[in-house]
Amino acid sequence: PSAVVSAETITDGQNDVLLTTNGGISYQTGITKSEIDVKTVTCTFSDSTVTLVLEVYGTVQDAEGYEYRALVNTTDSRYTMNYNAGTDLCTAYRFDNSDMDLEPEFSVSGSTITTEFNLLGDTTIVAQYGNTAHVVSGTEMYMDWLPDNMGPSNINDTEPVDHPDETQIVNDGQNDVLKSPQGTCTYERNQSK
Predict the structure, then answer these.
(1) What's the whole-number mean pLDDT along residues 37-61?
(2) Which of 6, 119, 120, 169 sits at a 20 to 30 Å CA gap from 78?
(3) Pairing between strand 17-21 and 26-31?
(4) Quick check: helix, strand or coil at residue 75?
């Protein structure tokens, strides 16, 4: 077995799933949906492998409409894990295309999805995140992100994100407003399903 060189875990709070309805026009936050509620994304580097683990608070589903993703970028490589309806699509590649791993080891067990890639280069992490979704219909979808600012679920922020071409949440203490290039709408806070 390879010795662990470094590991980094990012964590997310529970019951922060976002529900979008009416084709993205209406939102509800604070939804309890443990099978897609992201708990942690862990990236572990050994001398020859990279292990990427996404954990949810509930049990990973392999049914149609459930999607799980995790990604780690290092200074010279990208490692991605995608799991959708019981099928995995996991890849790793160097940004200069000099090396890749298209068939990593993959497993699902209870609340975790694990992918082990060949180490392709540097181990300095510059980006790490995870996201999940449950698409119920063309007009109803549940989503969660880790960290929260990777998607429009960062409703507890009091300042807008400084990305004018991307979705932002503005919380003025009274209303949560979603601002995106497509328009603006107001959130209904802390609704339970």
Answers:
(1) 95
(2) 169
(3) antiparallel
(4) coil
Tokens of 9: 């875990």
Question: For 18-32, what is each residue's pLDDT tens digit?
Answer: 888 876 666 777 888
Mean pLDDT of 13-22: 86
Distance CA 36, CA 15 (A): 10
Hey, how many other C-beta atoms are within 10 angstroms of the C-beta on 23? 11
Residues 109-142 have pLDDT tens digits of: 999 999 999 999 999 999 999 999 999 988 889 9
Please say whether the beta carbons of 151 and 157 come within 8 A: no
Q: To which residue do tokens 């003025």 refer?
A: 172
Q: Which residues of 172-189 are buried (b: 16+ CB within 10 A; e: fewer)?
A: eeeebbbbeeeeebebee
The structure tokens listed for 46 are 């050994």
- Distance in angstroms (rounded) separating the CA atoms of residues 27 and 170: 14
Give residue 167's identity as a one-letter amino acid code. T
